[in-house]
Amino acid sequence: MLEIDKQSPLPIYYQIEAYLKQQIDDGLLKPGDTLPSEREFSEQFHVSRMTIRQAIMNLVNAGYLSRQKGRGTFVASQKIAMTLSGLTSFSEEIKHRGMRPLSRLLSYEVIPATDRIAQQLSIPNQTPVYEMKRLRLADDHPLALETAYIPVHLLPDLTQDDATGSIYAYAEQHGLRLKNATQTLEARSAGPEEANLLTISPNAPVLLIDQRTYLEDGSMFEYSRSLFRGDSYSFTVAMDRI
Q: Where are the beta strands (DSSP E) in the chain?
């Protein structure tokens, strides 16, 4: 049991944070375990709930804990390690790691390409494109929010049901040959609606990835913007010296 040293130069919240982190690192608290409430921690350590909240939020932001609205605070699962080399779909990556991928379709419509979307896809303004917003899950655990844009003429028969699966696999089944993609990564904080869908705290760290996917003939197939939970993903980049 942690003995709080109120004479220590280390802040009390930091002592509690370090104690909980050590419990996780030592395997005494395991992924998926539910933590006591702030009130219970406050009574256990004889400190204010505000002090407990600071320690908990620091561990949430560091990826050790996750908070789910209405359910409580849990020890976070091991991060999914993604290698940024090779073109694979979300579904393929998740299956490769022995989990069950799922896409929850939040919206699906055909819209005229705005100036920004037309520029990203290298198509004329007002060209019809699919706009699909999906919540991506692994074993029912929300991992990412994705908004994708695909020119309608490339997949004229794409339905809402098709959009709940792997669109890459659907495209290849319909004769398109995907070649490569470019990605731009940016760290940011989750907004209230994004946090609610991803079951994380508002302002929790997320990684924004802009991706442009190309066909074998060099034309654009898809432009997407995805928000990945910072507590669930780590990314490795393979680089060669040039």
A: 65-68, 72-75, 80-83, 101-112, 128-138, 141-151, 178-189, 205-215, 220-229, 233-236
Q: Token match 């998740």: residue?
A: 94
Q: Is residue 104 a contact partner of residue 135, using CB atoms and an 8 Å limit?
A: yes
pLDDT in tens, 139-160: 888 889 999 999 999 999 999 9
* Tokens 């209405």 sit on residue: 70
Q: What is the pLDDT of residues 54-94, one digit of tens each?
A: 999 888 877 788 877 778 888 877 666 666 666 777 777 77
Q: Among positive and negative, which fits the CA dihedral 111, 112, 116, 121?
A: positive
Task: Of 83, 89, 86, 128, give the one whose Cα is nearest residue 109.
Answer: 128
Max distance between CA atoms of the chain, in angstroms, equals 70
8 A C-beta contact, residue 98 and residue 192? no
Q: If we measure between CA atoms, which residue out of 237, 179, 165, 173 comes closest to residue 213?
A: 179
The phi and psi torsions of 120 (rounded to 5 degrees) equal: -65, -35
With residue 64 as reference, give the H or E element that holds it: none
pTM score, two decimals? 0.69
